[in-house]
């Protein structure tokens, strides 16, 4: 039995999508973010970092695992059966599975948070905060984000899934989806400029497994819930 410790509007949604695709039974323990958007302290009882996702795989022994890309790799290795990817496809899969949390997500999270930080300063300091955070964004985020988005757009304009040649989602797709959803929600990814990415996100959202995962996870601001197809 697998238990997913799930936080609303977060990375664990991709684990629910994966488990639905694998057809593995699982239970969702839902946690709600605090007003400052952090996880509730009760998650610290499950794992020392108290972040989501965390899974428990309960068999003869109990495996507790955090870190989404590690979870994705673990679940696919244990429950996914054999994948037949070309050598190039396997390399794409490896690259994007790691790239998602090592490079893309830190950038997405910094980009999302910069505007929120300024609003938390006392009103009389807000202009200074905005200036400093704006300068930081100009130096470190603005040059990086388009470069990353362009790389992904090119890859998806040439391939249906992140692992080239694959006829369905692989680890890389489960790892990548949340970053792309976040960028689209914040309008860093727009149809006029990033048709391949937008089409890709819509294709993922149209999958019945994705929709079933949405149904189990509760509120998720980055995707519309529709009748499973
Ligand atoms: N790299 C980690 C990041 C985990 C993470 O930061 N999760 C967010 C949810 S998307 C979280 O728990 N945020 C609440 C907090 O930081 O208190 C992973 O991929 O699992």
UniProtKB/TrEMBL annotation:
Superkingdom of the organism of origin: Eukaryota
Coiled coil spans: none
Record domain GST N-terminal: where: 1-83
SUPFAM superfamilies xref list: GST C-terminal domain-like, Thioredoxin-like
TM segment ranges: none
InterPro entries registered for this protein in UniProt: Glutathione-S-Trfase_C_sf, Glutathione_S-Trfase, Glutathione_S-Trfase_N, GST_C, Thioredoxin-like_sf
Annotated family: Belongs to the GST superfamily.
Protein name in the entry: Thioredoxin-like protein
């Amino acid at each position: 039995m697998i238990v997913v410790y799930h936080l609303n509007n977060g990375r664990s949604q991709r684990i629910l999508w994966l488990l639905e695709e694998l057809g593995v039974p699982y239970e969702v323990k839902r946690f709600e973010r605090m007003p400052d958007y952090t996880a509730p302290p009760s998650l610290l009882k499950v794992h020392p970092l108290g972040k989501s996702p965390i899974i428990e795989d309960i068999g003869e022994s109990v495996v507790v695992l955090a870190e989404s890309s590690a979870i994705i790799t673990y679940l696919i290795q244990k429950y996914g059966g054999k994948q037949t990817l070309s050598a190039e496809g396997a390399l794409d899969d490896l690259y994007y599975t790691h790239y998602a949390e090592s490079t893309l997500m830190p950038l997405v999270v910094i980009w999302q948070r910069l505007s929120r930080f300024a609003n938390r300063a006392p009103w009389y300091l807000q202009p200074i905060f905005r200036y400093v955070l704006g300068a930081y964004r100009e130096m470190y985020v603005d040059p990086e984000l388009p470069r990353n988005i362009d790389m992904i757009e090119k890859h998806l304009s040439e391939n249906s899934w992140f692992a080239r040649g694959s006829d369905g989602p692989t680890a890389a797709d489960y790892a990548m989806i949340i970053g792309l959803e976040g960028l689209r929600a914040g309008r860093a990814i727009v149809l006029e400029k990033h048709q391949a990415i937008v089409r890709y996100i819509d294709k993922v959202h149209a999958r019945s497994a994705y929709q079933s995962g949405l149904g189990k996870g509760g509120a998720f601001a980055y995707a519309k819930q529709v009748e499973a197809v």
